[in-house]
Amino acid sequence: MSPPRAPAEARLLDAWERGAAASAARRALLLLSLALPGAGAAALAAQPVGRRDRHLFRLRRALFGDALACIAGCPACGERLEFALSAGEVLEGSPPPADEPLRVARGGWEVEVRLPTTQDLLRVTEGGPAADRAGALLRRCVVSATRRGRPADPGALPAAVLEAVDEEMARADLGSQVRLSLACPACAHGWEAPFDIVAFLWRELDAWARRVTAEVHVLASRYGWSERQILSLGPRRRGRYLELVGA
Ligand SMILES: [Zn+2]
Fold it and tell me: Which of 81, 93, 87, 38 is nearest to 61 (CA)?
């Protein structure tokens, strides 16, 4: 697959505005729509989470480069670690998930499940009580369930079976749970930390949008140009006009 071209700045600002008060899952969809501009809303929401996040790592690379500047605090001694995560290495380390349903057998149960999508996350987080969200998410993804060879209610899956389903999903969709192996240079403590590309990329988009709207403000005040006209200049010419007005 060829790398995505960076989306136009006006589209980035539009996504930023629409996602300002949105949930993480909705922001993920807005970012994904930037990565896959031709896809409809239903197709975007139906992407398994790991596949979605692979697109977001590619989008991040197209927008801001390969190196993601990260900061973590050592849980043992509090030392602050600064390091760069490579989007390319994450993509190489997590192959895209297979499209076929997964099969899990445990304690007389045989369960066929598909991988969770953003649509599933939205249904579970926006449509029901906060308790047992993880279980509700797994049960939503059950395609079929049998117990000792007879059809069974997916709602009756015992905790041990749900746990096995969860493990199988994580194994089949490595990209859905990116984890960093970190080591503290001060005390040598080692630990694993989850990495959330949606939250990371949204923070970057937010910082970028604040900077660009400040530039638009300066140039609009000085020249009377519209936001659309200023964005159509592109970053290089915009930067030159900002130099000229002494901003
Ligand atoms: Zn430490």
Answer: 87
- pTM, to two decimals: 0.88
For the stretch 244-247, contacts whose Cβ atoms lie closer than 8 Å and that sit 24 or more positions apart, written own/partner, are 245/218, 245/219, 247/215, 247/218
On whether residue 2 sits in a domain, the answer given is: no
Cα 193 to ligand 1 centroid, rounded to whole Å: 14
Report yes or no on 245 lying in a domain.
no
CA 75 to ligand 1 center in whole angstroms: 7
How many angstroms does the Cα of residue 188 sit away from the middle of ligand 1?
6
* pLDDT 10s digits, 11-47: 999 999 999 999 999 999 999 999 999 999 999 999 9
State in Å: Cα 73 to ligand 1 middle: 8
Three-class SS state of 192: strand
Q: Which structural domain, as residue segments, surrounds residue 207?
A: 9-95+179-238
